[in-house]
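lol ok so funny story. i was supposed to be doing the assay writeup but got distracted and ended up predicting the structure for this chain instead. priorities right. anyway since i did it might as well share w the group, maybe its usefull for someone
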Amino acid sequence: MSPLFEQILKARHISPAEQADFLAPDYNKTHDPFLLPDMAKAVERLVVARQQQEKITIYGDYDIDGLTATTVLLDALEAFGFKNVETYIPNRFVEGYGLTLEAVEKIAATGCQLIITVDCGSLSEAEIKLAKKLGLDVIVTDHHNVAPKQPPAVAVINPKRIYTEYAEEFDDKLRLKAGSKLQGKIYPFVDLAGVGVAFKLVQALQAKLDGLVPGSEKWLLDLVALGTVCDVVTLVDENRLFVYYGLKVLAKTRRPGLRALMAVSGVEPAAINARHLGFALGPRMNAAGRLETARHALDMLRATDGMVALEKAQMLNDFNRNRRAEQDTIFKAAIIQAEQLVADPVLVVSHPDWNHGIIGIVAAKLLEKYKKPTFVLQELGDEAKGSARSYGGFSAADAIRAADDLIIKGGGHKLAAGVTLSTANIAAFRQRVNDFYRSQNLVNQAELLLPRADAEAKLSDLTEALIDEIAQLEPFGSGNRQPVFISDKLTVASRRAMGSDGQHIKLELADAEGKTLQFLAFSAPPYFFVEPGETVKVWYEIGINEWQGHRSVEGRLLHLEITG
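and the output, tada:
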């Protein structure tokens, strides 16, 4: 193990005792699913449903987490011998997120006896009360924020319930502290994605039902990995394990739909990594729900015929191309509004023509550009629907709660949330969330967006052998980013602008010993365009550049400071 790789492990607080489990996760060390709240109640109810072959509806969500969780349960219940299982995926544009009263009435009219929610339901008090009144039981599987009092479902399986009660027992990556007296008594990791919670239900059912022999559930991990990475939960603990093994399953997936999606995305199955999930497969699946209906993506996941799978995958690819074009148009218009709100620490922008299926991505791009939490809203007549993105110490979900009297509904996570409000209240909402930000007395927030270096490196340290060591840290994602290096006192030997508009840059940097390395940045900010001869300090990731049979180490520039 090289000294530089040892520094990376130390910077990530991976002790020598933890290294083996981190670098080669052991699937047999998954946590006991019955430690999750209400898991035993859910399993008991499902055993009865299996015995009586009741009609079940899996109520999903229109994003990848919901779609993969829906498919996990469909596949598993089918293996367990359930005969009457249907799905309900709400339409983003008609019904919005989560359970709705209208949907519950529609499902009840089909003769359904049990609803299982995935990736939603924790705050659906009124909807679950209506279901109960109409003779339907509800099992909630979710990972979003919970209410102080749980809705009247048969079971509410949500790890956030544990965190709400025992927050002080968990570390900053939402793992139960090693010395906690609650070890073995409560679920030790509370940042599962919705698909992760659904998978834990499958594991629990294996203890009570035949049909899915122990070990065969691993074939579901391609879906678990996809939903986990795309929902941007922390890739530590059980999430890391799920994605680590899920990528192995994806490399040889039995699903024609995922094979077709990889083909149209230009992803080689044997070389698939977490970045491909987040930036190639994920956006194409999400594009269906953003522009039309997520049902297309579910049909792709469930396809058994290769030609049908390819047709669905190509459709998703076309949706994604259209989504990118529409996103660019909205982003440019949103910048014009944002420039008029320079004094606001939180951006709130809106317009009638902005597709609310796309505005979440635009909010993320505005946050990146302006270093501010951002709400982007589509005005739909008297109502407006919006998405929020945040970072650092500012919780988008708490900001929405601070405006409860101004909104119709809203909620989500600290860093991503959604809101619906009267269009007439947009200005008041803007004022309220900005007042809330100021009340938090947050300092140096923009600095939190700067890359944090794992280690200081000399250019001579950056070898292919080091890149091979770094590969052991895969999968990369939230909570386990690709290692970042910092190097100081480098001289700019040459600069070359690239791209149709000169928007990309390649720098050749040299150290005091004369060692040189190429550094690239795509869509580079203006301050990256430094002059030859200047001295710089750089933050970067490393990878291999292959060109005409030649391999070389190169840097991907993340941040730069001129020092001389």
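Residues 166 and 521 are 43 Å apart (CA to CA). The mean pLDDT is 95.
back to the writeup now i swear
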